[in-house]
Amino acid sequence: MRWNTLDRLDHRKPLVVDTRELGRRPGSMLKVSRTVPAPVDMGVADVIGAPEGVPIRLGVRLEAVMEGVLVTGVAQVPLTGECVRCLEPLERELTVRFQELYVYPDTDADEDALRLQDDLFDLEPVLRDATVLALPLSPLCREDCPGLCSECGALLAEDPDHSHELADPRWAKLTSIFDGPSAEADVDGASGADENQEK
Predict the structure, then answer these.
(1) Which residue, 1, 36, 112, 135, is most buried by CB atoms nearer than 10 A?
(2) Which PANTHER family match (predicted)?
(3) What is the tens place of the pLDDT at every residue in 147-179?
(4) DSSP result, 128-152
(5) Distance of CA 127 to CAs 53, 96, 113, 137, Å?
(6) What is the SS3 assignment for 64?
(7) 28 and 63 in contact (C-beta within 8 Å)?
(8) Residues 157, 146: contact at Cβ < 8 Å?
(9) Over the stretch 103-146, which tens digit does the pLDDT of each residue have?
């Protein structure tokens, strides 16, 4: 997905980068390192993502080319989420790599191309896209997570020997008869009847 921002960019925003120091001479290079707060919507629903405001470490290389500025970068993104098997909270750090060309305003380029504005560009959409696409769709606290007991919901990682005795369904009726509150009385009554018959 592409964003073409019609509003003027604010150079004070942490993910807006100024390229004036780079210049326009092809082959020029500039490296930028900074720590920025995570913007909103850096995740997949409520499953996993970067909470808004957590610090993201960025390393970006700017290269001047004929059409504009080629941006190549890497970001260390802290993640929080929930294991899809056991529902326990989890934390990860995701390494995201990205590359994008921001073309000069006077360059004849595709309509959906990202463009420099007053020598500035906004890295937020590119960073968000790269992060969301790299997120696991089914995050696990560990690869061999055993999950939860389907019978009672117990956390199987805490009790590897956890199990339930499975009764043969054909005996279910008999089990309910002998396990019921009146079972003992019925047995006692039957015993008394047998003694009377013997007399």
Answers:
(1) 135
(2) LARGE RIBOSOMAL RNA SUBUNIT ACCUMULATION PROTEIN YCED HOMOLOG 1, CHLOROPLASTIC
(3) 777 777 666 666 677 777 665 666 666 666 655
(4) HHHHHHHS-SS--SSTT---B-TTT
(5) 14, 8, 16, 18
(6) strand
(7) yes
(8) yes
(9) 998 887 787 889 999 999 999 999 999 999 999 888 998 888 87
